[in-house]
Amino acid sequence: MFTLFGEYLLGRSDSVWVGSLIALLEPFGLTEGGVRTALSRMAKKDWLSSERRGKSSFYALTDRGRALLEEGQQRIYHPSWDQAWSGDWLVLAYSIPENARSLRDRLRDRLAWLGFGSMGNGLWISPRDVEQDVRALSASLNLHDHLMCFKARPATDLSDDELVRRCWDLKALHRSYTDFAQRWKRESYTAGAPTPAAKDESDVRAFVLRFELIHEFRRFPLEDPFLPRVLLPKPWGGDDATDVFRDLHDRLMGPADKWVSKVLRNTPPHIDHSLSVP
Fold this sequence. Notes:
Blueprint: H1 2-9, E1 16-17, H2 18-25, H3 32-44, E2 48-53, E3 56-61, H4 63-77, E4 89-94, H5 101-113, E5 117-120, E6 123-126, H6 131-141, E7 147-152, H7 160-167, H8 170-192, H9 196-199, H10 203-217, H11 220-223, H12 237-264
Antiparallel strand pairs: 1-3, 2-3, 4-6, 4-7, 5-6
Helix pairs in contact: 1-4, 8-12, 10-12
């Protein structure tokens, strides 16, 4: 559901009829009951808002859901490996009581999302200047008395490369990127090349393929700390994977969007949905 809203519905300001959402997810084998259950759960968690128009239900992203997806889209389409690096490390230390384990887990998840790597014993580092993000995170979790954050450089012969090896498994991430690129390169020819098979591919197939592509690729921003390029191995699999992703995504965008627009226009005849897709 997050993939559907993030990739196809994020640009819409109006809500979407539940029947359209069911139709959009039908190619993946999801039942009507399964879709309605997922929508209800996301509404309860404040990712989506719901409204009734007559006997029909409509759903839209909440501010919270939209903010999450917009942040994710920024990472997916604009990886930041080429950012400049001053050579300083942002060091964060925390001490949270054992009886607040759930809070500690939430903090760890957010630190990883911000690109921090763990050195163990509540000590995390990042080469990125995310001080303002840390301040916002501290305020949102009410951790002012439990966090310490400062900038530093190694004072011994410990190298930056060694720090990276201790905190992140870039070799495994490189292999994942490389595997993604190799598998989807084969698909990029059949889906995007000007051959009879590609020309005959249906809009629905383009939608499904693009959906699967983005659903798989969107896990990388959850795993990649987006370190400055000077700290990355050479070659870096993320470059090839990103190129493959963008090429196939662009080829599939037109026919996939065409089918989505057709489905979204198919609202119940008794509903005056003036904000439907043109």
